[in-house]
Every structure is written in C-alpha cells, then in structure tokens.
Amino acid sequence: MSDKLRQTLMGEAKILMISFGAGFVCMLVFAVVTQLYAADAQEDVASEIVRFHVLAHSDSDSEQELKLRVRDAVLERYSTLMHGAQDREQSIELLRAELGNIENIAAQVVAKAGLDHDVEAGLHTGFFPTRAYGEIRLPPGMYKSLTIRIGDAIGKNWWCVVFPPLCFVDEAQAEVSDTGRERFADLMSDSAYDLVSQSESDTGVRVRFAVVEWWQNRSAGDPGEILIVKN
Predict the structure, then answer these.
(1) What is the per-residue pLDDT for 82?
(2) Where are the domains of the chain?
C-alpha cells in the first residue's frame, strides 16, 4: 500500500471516528435533555395535584361494587371541602386533618355490607398511569394521593383528581364542564395547565406530552418498589 493511499484511508477513518463520536454525543445530550424535560414537566403537574385512590379488596363483583360505594360516601362528604381549598398545600392539610374521619366513613360502608375488612386511609405517593378527563390529560408519573385501602387492597381500583376537583365529573360524560376546566386552570400554573390541556389542534403540546409520557413510563422503575395504580 502506497503512503498516499495509507494517508487517505487514515484521514477517512479519522473523519468517520469524529462523525460517530459527534453523533454519540448528540444522542447522549438529547437523552439527557429529554429526561430532564420529562421529569421537570411531570413534576410541575404533580406539584399542583392531589389524586384520590380507592383500592378494592379483590376483583369480585361484590368487592368492586363495595369499592364504588366507599368512593361515593367519601366524595359526598368531602366535595365541598375540596372545592374550598385554595391551593394544593391547603388541600393536603385539610385531608391530613380528616384522615381519621375518612377512614371511619369508609369503614362504616364496609361494615354495612356485612364485611370485616380492615380499612386504611392515608396520604401516599405512587405511580399513576396516563389519565384523560375530556381535553385534560394527566401524564404518568409519581403523584401524591389520598389513598383508601380496603382489606387486602389487591383488586382493581379507582382513582381521580381530588384537587383541583375532577372527581365530581360524571364518569359517563366525555368532557369536563367549562366551570370545572376554568377552576382547574385557575388553580394550576400556566406551564402545568398548558401541558395537560389538549385539543386536536395543539400539535406542539401533544408532542411535548408524548415525550413526557414515553419517558415517565420508561423510567417507572421496579413495580415492586412503588405503588402502581391499576384500572
């Protein structure tokens, strides 16, 4: 091989190595930026929200019906209280002060059904999947929640948003009411509301939401270490 050819091949090899190196760096930077954006965006939403989560004892029809009766009893008692909360911190303090009463309400429903399941009410942090309420769509991730565990708490469960209030929307309705949407917007930061409020024309928002959704689902971690909410 001539010296000229050798030099040419070495030059081309260097160019390829630099190109591959630059490509790898770009991919690494993109991954880091995507991770940081997705984490920050989901945390921005989660910092404005408190979920409500009822875990059924089992998947039997009677236990699933009991779960819904517990849900209805708690919401009937606390809907007005939550509508009066001015921010997330106040809603958490109100719920924390009422945990004993919430647990008693749930236990009374269980006892009325002729069952002796243990009932536990508490404030917990767990992983929730994507959930849509009309045009309001919450990304997956870790959220604070008012959690009621009935018995073994291994059955299919039910959840909603207790603050800002979205639990009080009829599940059969496809859309959140204008009043509910306006209150949701008033109580959330602009950046958080922009991410969760979507329409077919909001292509940019939908793309950003998809990025957050993909990363949060990918980085959910070991299901055994965190609370995974099931339908």
Answers:
(1) 82
(2) 42-218
